[in-house]
Amino acid sequence: MNKHINIKTTNIELSDALREYIEKKFDGIESIFSVSELTGQIEVGKISNHHKSGDIYRAEVNLNANGKFFRTTEETSDLYVAIDMVKDSIVAEAKKAKTRSRSLVRQGGQKVKSLLKGFWRKSE
Prior knowledge:
It contains 3 helices and 4 strands, in the order βααβββα. By secondary structure, it is of the alpha+beta class. It has one domain: Ribosome hibernation promotion factor-like (Double Stranded RNA Binding Domain), CATH 3.30.160. It has a 4-stranded mixed sheet, covered by helices on one side. Strand 3 and strand 4 (about 70-75) form a beta hairpin. The protein is elongated. The mean pLDDT is about 85.
C-alpha cells in the first residue's frame, strides 16, 4: 500500500499537536478506499485574519485513489471540528462511490441473466 498525503496550512502555523491530530484522524483512511495507491493533500487554516464574525476555519481534503478523485471541504468556527467534519465527509463520499460501483456491477449481472433467460427460451 502506497500512501502519500501532504498537509498544508493557510494563515496558521502547523504545530506538532495539529500535525499529530490530522495524522491520527486520517491514519486508517486507506482501508476505506481499499486501493493500492492513495495520494492527496489535506489543507487546513483560517479563511482570513480579519473576518467580521470571528475566526472561521476551513479544512479541505483532496484524495486520488487509483485514478478516482475525491474532494470535500468544511468550514466552521473550530479548527478541530472542521477536521472531524471533513474526515467524516470524505469517508461518506468513499462509501457512496463504493456502493455505486457495486450496484452498477449488480445491474450488469441482472442484464446478463435476463439475456440468458431469453436465449434459453428461444433455443428450446
